[in-house]
Write a structure and sequence with these properties.
The complex is a heterodimer of chains A (236) and B (578).
Chain A (H helix, E strand, L loop, with lengths): L2 E10 L9 E10 L4 H11 L19 E4 L2 E4 L12 E5 L6 E3 L2 E2 L2 H9 L19 H8 L9 H4 L2 H5 L6 H11 L7 H8 L13 H5 L6 H16 L1
Helix pairs in contact in A: 2-6, 6-7, 6-9
Chain B lengths: L8 E9 L3 H12 L4 E5 L15 E2 L10 H11 L6 H21 L13 E2 L9 E2 L5 H15 L3 E4 L1 E9 L2 E9 L5 E11 L20 H8 L4 E2 L4 E8 L9 H4 L3 E3 L20 H13 L10 E4 L5 H7 L1 H11 L8 E10 L3 E2 L5 E3 L6 E7 L4 E2 L11 H23 L11 H12 L6 H15 L6 H18 L13 H25 L17 H4 L4 E5 L2 E5 L8 H4 L7
Parallel strand pairs in B: 1-2, 1-9, 2-6, 9-17, 15-18
Antiparallel strand pairs in B: 3-5, 4-5, 7-8, 8-9, 10-19, 11-14, 12-13, 13-14, 16-17, 19-20
Helix pairs in contact in B: 1-4, 1-10, 2-3, 3-10, 5-14, 12-13, 12-14, 13-14
Classes of the chains: A alpha+beta (236), B alpha/beta (578).
The complex binds flavin-adenine dinucleotide (FAD) and iron/sulfur cluster.
The site of iron/sulfur cluster has 15 residues of chain A, from α4 and α6.
């Protein structure tokens, strides 16, 4: 562990005072084993308290601190300085979202899209006294999709969404997958109706950006492809 | 009903503060009962710290091996070193199984047994595999499922709103006042009933597994209203916190056979718990680590030891402990297949909190008199299920079960009661907090004061405690409280002013930490997570009592007259040996 000198450029924007976002540079010294979140904390706590960003759990599970660092969407908390070759950092908010302030983006639309696909178990059968039985194989089908932390990285990196903001986007579609492929769920028809639409599953052009951006390494594109097959089968 | 967020006044039957497992479960219950409910949370609901729980949720389903409610009850009582109230524990255990089945029926993706039932695994302190789990993301799937169910019930969320004050008058709660983090502006929530479910207070410590959000806000607000906190001196330290970061490396690592080594490469647990070795209970292993560190046998004489997975082998590490592997690699650049991982004890769970009865009604004294319309559940509360030391996987269960109970109690209350008038100038106290920080002229930074507090708490009221250390800490906390009066913030704006909310949070840490220190000084015994070098024995004769702590002009006032409820015929105190 040694000290390093950092040059950190942060895209700043305050809606109350700024017409548009601008770059601000901070020079600071830290240990070399810190994370990007530690760097932001150091700036915010000891240099410039006006800097705003979201963070909470610090262990890559709450999904608050997704942002773009040196050109990649990452979770700031789990990204060590050592993952970059240089001590120059360029930090900006997730692209594709409206900026609220500095690195904080507006997620209202992101969550609203999630709500559109009916993101909850739909049951048309009575509940049992104990648990519904589900085989380990059926659990495996949904396990990875259920890992999604709703960080927004995938949706932010999707060119189809940049081109058409009404597109549901990968995170909402992945949620649809998680329920449609849940052996306990009875809402497949309703959900397929919603996603089998020109702003739904068919806007995914298998570009794979989402998968690359996902901090949880979820094979999003693969699951969306399975959804396409399901939607096609259902409409025949 | 759609509330008009632009307005600064809201009138709603029930307000839930906090969107973790406890808050969401309560909100769901109230909404299902047909009452209006608003959830106020300073982070988006799915970002609540409940999502960080990995290991599991306890319930004696007996899906994998024989188990019973009685055994679960005994383990909980013994784990809590006999400070838990046994009437509450009995009720808790009797509801636990139902809570898990309900979760499953709502859609929680649990890991499964071969025959399709909820899978269960072993966990420290439980004598049967009782932890229902979903891979290593149990808290995450429980939290997301509850959020989904709340969406289905059209629960109204006020996301990124932070409660700044409680409206309590004549022993009755009439609502809360909250700051809109995103846009600025103070909102008054006028309601018949309020639930405080703001989670743990681990952020009082430097090294902690807790989220940035776990600043015990509601606890400080309770003290401000002249109400007491209970058993604050009991803070659990987890032995496998990632060095410097404090974030948790799952107990599963030790379960899979990881060694813990000192500077000499010795498995030093042989000197502390010869039979259980690394698998001893959390408090015992944490104390062993701290002893090694204190006696100069930390790695390179520093304040950490090693968690060694190497002998487990690449295949098994990648299959069973992928998260542990990733955390070490991403944060510390340590490849756990080839190198040992630096670890240290980390402040993990808050046993103390806002006192309440089994119906989750907040109480104001040792006799159990209640504050009308005010409820609490989850890690912010102290009912007391976990006594002096919480067993892993019992806390998700606690948050969910008592969240549901709070929802039931609040629904009844809302049905049977009318709105009371708000106190005069309800926003004054909250607005004053904002203007003090915004208009301050002093030179102090809240971040500096917080760091000094956290250092002091970790060093002087951590794993080991002595009167001498804590008297120093008492002085330090007072000093920092004085210095805090000169805090000014850089950010004077309304939009997403993180500087403001952090200043508020540090003021909260400074306030309730005092009750941890005073509780710990007064409790002259060692029990569960509270270990006194100068009083190393448990003292059942004098200390089968809870601590209630008030903040007054003259400092913290303690009351130890609340005796622990014990069923002497069934669960009389015995020595806690593992
Ligand atoms: C790393 C880790 C792993 C764990 N693993 C396990 C496990 O395997 N099994 C287990 O049983 N337990 C585990 N625990 C403990 C367990 O996760 C917690 O005790 C439990 O989730 C607490 O739930 P809660 O609803 O009380 O609080 P939280 O989930 O912490 O939620 C608190 C809520 O309050 C809100 N809030 C706080 N202050 C304010 C304010 N002023 N205004 C508005 N909103 C506010 C926050 O936004 C948040 O929504 C673990 C804990 C940690 C730290
Ligand atoms: S799929 Fe991955 S990138 Fe997209 S929101 Fe979920 S966790 Fe984030």
């Amino acid at each position: 562990m040694a000290k390093v000198k950092l040059n950190v450029k942060v895209l700043r924007y305050n809606p109350d005072t700024d017409k548009k976002p601008y770059w601000k540079t901070y020079e600071l010294e830290t240990e070399d084993d810190v994370t990007i979140l530690d760097v932001l904390n150091e700036i915010h706590w000891n240099i410039d308290g006006t800097l705003a960003y979201r963070r909470s759990c610090r262990s890559a599970i709450c999904g608050s601190c997704a942002m773009k660092v040196n050109g990649r969407n990452v979770l700031a908390c789990e990204t060590g300085l050592h993952q970059f070759n240089s001590h120059k950092l360029k930090i900006e908010p997730l692209p594709g979202f409206k900026i609220i302030k500095d690195l904080v983006v507006d997620l209202d639309e992101f969550f609203a899209k999630l709500e559109r696909i009916l993101p909850y178990l739909i049951l048309k059968k009575p509940t049992p006294d104990k648990e519904f039985l589900q085989s380990p194989q059926d659990f495996d089908k949904i396990q990875e999709a259920a890992m999604c932390i709703l960080c927004g990285s995938c949706t932010s990196s999707c060119p189809s969404l940049w081109a058409n903001e009404d597109y549901l986007g990968p995170a909402a579609l992945l949620k649809a997958y998680r329920f449609i492929f849940d052996s306990r769920d009875d809402g497949t028809d309703e959900r397929l109706d919603i996603i089998n639409d020109r702003n739904g599953i068919w806007r995914c052009h298998t570009i794979f950006n989402c998968m690359e951006a996902c901090p949880k390494d979820i094979k999003i594109t693969e699951y969306l492809s399975r959804l396409k097959v399901k939607a096609t089968e259902n409409s025949i | 009903m759609k509330l008009d967020e632009a307005k600064l006044y809201h009138k709603i039957d029930a307000v839930v503060v906090g969107a973790g497992l406890a808050g969401l479960r309560a909100a769901l219950e109230i909404a299902r009962n047909g009452f209006q409910v608003a959830v106020i949370s300073k982070v988006y609901p799915t970002r609540s710290h409940s999502g960080a729980a990995q290991g599991g949720i306890a319930a004696a389903l007996a899906n994998v091996k024989e188990d019973s409610l009685d055994l679960h009850m005994f383990d909980t009582i013994k784990g809590g070193d006999y400070l838990g109230d046994q009437d509450v524990i009995e009720f808790f255990i009797s509801e636990a199984v139902k809570t898990v089945y309900e979760f499953e029926n709502m859609g929680v993706p649990f890991s499964r047994t071969e025959d399709g039932r909820i899978n269960q695994r072993d966990f420290g302190g439980h004598s049967s595999p009782r932890a229902c789990f979903s891979a290593d993301i149990t808290g995450h799937v429980l939290l997301h499922t509850l959020y989904e169910q709340c969406v289905k019930q059209h629960v109204h969320f006020f996301n990124e709103f932070q409660v700044f004050s409680l409206l309590i008058e004549n022993d009755s709660c009439k609502g809360v006042v909250a700051w809109d983090i995103r846009n600025g502006g103070m909102h008054t929530f006028h309601s018949k009933s309020v639930l405080l479910a703001t989670g743990g207070y681990g952020r009082a410590y430097k090294i902690t597994s807790n989220a940035h959000a776990n600043t015990g806000d509601a606890l400080a607000l309770i003290l401000e209203c002249g109400l007491p906190l209970e058993d604050m001196e009991f803070v659990q330290f987890h032995p496998t916190g990632l060095y410097k970061h404090g974030i948790l490396l799952s107990e599963a690592a030790r379960g899979e056979g990881a060694y813990i080594l000192n500077d000499k490469g010795e498995r030093f647990m042989k000197n502390y718990a010869a039979t259980k070795m690394e698998l001893g209970p959390r408090d015992v292993v944490s104390r062993a680590e701290q002893t090694e560190i204190n006696e100069g046998r930390g790695i390179g004489g520093k304040d950490y030891v090693y968690l060694d997975l190497r002998h487990i082998g690449k295949e098994r590490i990648m299959e069973r402990l992928p998260q542990v592997y990733d955390l070490a690699l991403n944060y510390l650049k340590v490849d756990a297949i080839k190198e040992p991982i630096p670890i240290q004890p980390t402040a993990h769970y808050s046993m103390g909190g806002i006192p309440a009865n089994v119906r989750t009604e907040v109480i104001k004294d040792a006799k159990g008199s209640i504050i009308k319309g005010l409820y609490t559940a989850g890690e912010a509360s102290c009912l007391s299920v976990h006594g002096a030391n919480r067993l892993g996987t019992n806390s998700l269960q606690d948050a969910a079960t008592f969240g549901r109970i709070a929802g039931i109690s609040m629904s009844q209350f809302v049905r049977d009661n009318k709105f009371e008038n708000l106190p005069a100038n309800p926003q004054d106290a909250a607005l004053k907090k904002v203007s003090t920080f915004m208009n301050g002229t002093g030179k102090e930074r809240h971040s500096v004061i917080r760091a000094l507090l956290q250092n002091g708490m970790t060093k002087l009221a951590g794993v080991f405690r002595t009167e001498e250390d804590m008297l120093k800490l008492r002085v330090l906390v007072k000093e920092l409280q004085e210095r805090f009066k000169n805090v000014t913030i850089d950010d004077k704006g309304n939009s997403y002013n993180m500087d403001l909310i952090e200043a508020f949070e540090v003021s909260n840490l400074l306030s309730f930490s005092e009750t941890i220190v005073e509780g710990a000084i007064a409790r002259k015994e060692s029990r569960g997570a509270h270990y006194r070098n100068d009083y190393p024995k448990r003292d059942d004769e004098n200390w089968l009592r809870h601590t209630l702590a008030w903040q007054t002009e003259k400092g913290v006032v303690l009351d130890h007259s609340k005796e622990v409820i014990i069923f002497r015929d069934r669960y009389a105190p015995q020595e806690r040996k593992y």
